[in-house]
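hey all, quick one before standup. I had two proteins in the batch that finished overnight and I want to keep them in one place so we stop losing track of which output belongs to which input. First protein below, input sequence then structure tokens straight from the run.
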Amino acid sequence: MQSGVSPLHGRAVDFIRGIMSGQMVGAENYGVVRGDYNYDFSVRLEGGAAFSNTGILVASANERKAESGSELPLGIKCTWKRRILDASSSSSSSSSLAAEGLLVEIAGISTNMYQISADDIGCKIVVEARLADPNHLHYRGVAIGEIGPFQLDPSTRRSLDNSIGAGGSRFPVTFYKKENEPKQNYMLHVTSDEIKVIQPGMTERFDREISITYSGDYPRVLIHPLDTLKFKLLVDSSTEMHFGSLSRQSRDLIALTIRCFHSRRHIATAALLEQVFSNPINHGGMLNTEDYQAAQLDLCLYTDRLRGELIRQLETRIAIEKQYHKIANEKTFLDDQLHDTITSFTGMIQDLQDQVTTNESAQGGPGVPTDHTSASRLNPDPFFHAATSVPLKKYENLQQENTHLKIELEEQRRQILQEKHKAKLAGNPFGDMGFGSNSSGGAGTSKIEQELQRLKEENRRLLRSQEPSNAEMRRLRIDNDQILQEREELVRRLERADREKAELSSNFVYVKGEYDKLQNRMSSPSGGGSGMNNFTVGGSASSSTSPFGDPFSISAGVSPGLGGGEHSSSAGGRSYRALQEERNRLAQRVEQLTQDAEKAKTSQDQGMERVMTSNARLLEEKDRLQREVERVSRLYADAVNHAAATSAGMGGYGSSDELQQQVRTLQVDSLKKDEKIRVLESENASLKTRIRKLASVT
């Protein structure tokens, strides 16, 4: 190519020559074929942009129409190889067959189709085709086709630039532990320092991850030659992990991102610059003008990437400046508050000092000299009377507190002066002195604040979850009181029924005894008449011993003979029937009372069972809440320890007071919650005691 012609014009001429000499038809890209064969053979790229990694290579063999009169396809067996080009051969045209480079066979593929992947970027693909039937009558030979080199498609290139510029990216993948086991959803986090294989849990706290650092030979990514989604990650010489991506583009992007970060980590920058800007023909000299102009596109892309990184760094700088100004304003505000506090305490101490002086002068009387009073005001030493020991002790305590506050004020002023001095030395908030520890302190403070906020939310959630249990406990307590009242009422009714039953039983026994006596008197043959005469003669005495004396006395007085005996027998039969009716009525009454008592006992047992079930449920809820409170207490203790450690590490920057205040607030909240838990436990214990008493009574 002449020196006056631009490289772009030369490449266009080479491309047109390739079209004229090759077999490019329509929108299909054909490769160059050669070899000793007597059939029609072609290699073409289908799908995707021109020579991009999204297409499919198809090798086809047909009969020659001039010989057989048809173009029927022939079965072929293909061997695919990858030609790795160096810098000089990659810049040559695609139609050149004399390109030098390492030829590597792609194992596992013998079909006439091949999927372009990220392994083929910057390489040419060579295919050797033989007939599937080696004993064919008319056709023979080996055909060789070559096509390429291939490059990234624009969308994958933009995604790769963004991932490298951002310092890493996350890719959702599927993990294949074994072929017959179901796949699992994982997350692959590729950064410039390491690769993290993350197994998601229920929440982000329960995620499990494996970190893989970059070494000289590992990790390596092997792309599956047949499946467009699968790839293999070699962690070391004995460990490998099988993954599947969501798409073909995502798989290529994962492989290229890992390889770029790996190369940037373990290939020296000087060697890269020497390889890029040196001319191997001239023994280390600079490249010629044509190659340098051809590489302007790569330099522009690299410049855009650096511009993006610069913009991100500027945004980070602005954010850090805002944080620095915020911290400075907070320090100023705290300084003003401290000054106001010291002023107010100084005024209070002065008032107390005047009050002590006034009391001393009033107790000293007229004999106390004035110079002693002024001396006591200036130097409050213990020269007072014993009666003033209490206000003097209070005054001494206030004076000690004033001394401590003055010391703290001097310490704060010294720290402020140190910060101002560091800021003057640095000239900006990004100086080398002091800002790194301040930013780390701010980060630690933000982490502690987030942890404290999370603990507060956890406590609120526990209180909200405890409210239904409290309402349920109150309702069960009301039900228990009602059941106890019903039980007492049933016990009273049962006692009353027992008394009625005993009274009826005694009445029945008495009536039956009298009836037996009557039957004995009526059945005696010799004592009937004399008995009647006795009733007639001494009716008053007989009536006093027998409850049925009046009818017998009347019958004896009317007919004291055989007729009087028949009349007394009929009266005794009526009395017997009346007694039987009364007995039946009492038996029915006793049976009804027994049924009522059994119903009351059944209802009481059911109520007791409900109370015991509710108590068991409350005990389970109490145990669960106790476990939750213990877990929150452990989290709170960890947060307090972390806060104490962080505040100890951040001493001198004004944030320890806020942390201590927040820790004290959390301690007070924890004490309140512990007290509430103890009250609930005491109430639950009293409820258990009442239930045990109820069970023992039953």
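OK second protein, same deal, sequence then tokens:
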Amino acid sequence: MAFNRMPTQEDRVQQQAGEDTARRLIKARTGTTSSRFAQRQDARQRIAEQSGLSNRQQAAVAAERRLAESRAIIATNAEAEAAEQEAAEAAHRQEQEERRATASDQTMIDRAAQIADLCARHGVPEKASKFILDGIAPAEVERLIGRASAITALVEQARKIDARIDAGMARQLIANGATIKEARAAVINEMADLSDTIMIRGQVPPDATGPSAEQKNVGRWRQAFAKAGGAISRPTVAQQQGGTTHEQG
């Protein structure tokens, strides 16, 4: 008659050693490593089993171990989600920067096209590149071109009346940044000086009748400028000496 032999402490130790060996082999094959906390839990469970703890106590140790593993998995997932969110935000920022750069490039292209069109319409296409490189706004370009065109037309009209006026006067006035009003005053002074020179060289006899040569000359350029859109009054001698001019209109 056979009797069931109760396992001794030595039997339990040998059984636990066999289980540990099998566990190590499985881990070596799968290439996984447990965390330090999990290793401590394994050690605690082995100690509990070897020390003859009750089944309830062993179950509590195993439950604590599973809880620790679950927390570790949750923490790992949270870190992965945070890293993924950070990568998405970085990609979004880069996309926004690229859009801003594209918008800036398009703005520069539009501005250059407007400036080139303005210069072409006013007959000065060669000035477009300088305006673009200087970063001048299209509205300012239109104002500068309009001022230059008006001053050029003013000097050309004056030269039709008196060809002795310097042809480069318009270019000099534009380069000095003169306004249309200042350019008109400068042209009037130049014409008045030329008329005074004519009067001094050829004095009109006191008993002469009819308008003098100066009066005829002044009348001619006054009519021409009136047609051009400006009512001009000739500066007095005192105004010329003081360096000031008055113009009406």
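Flagging for whoever picks this up: Residues 163-202+212-242 form one domain. Confidence is low (pLDDT under 50) at residues 198-203, 229-249.
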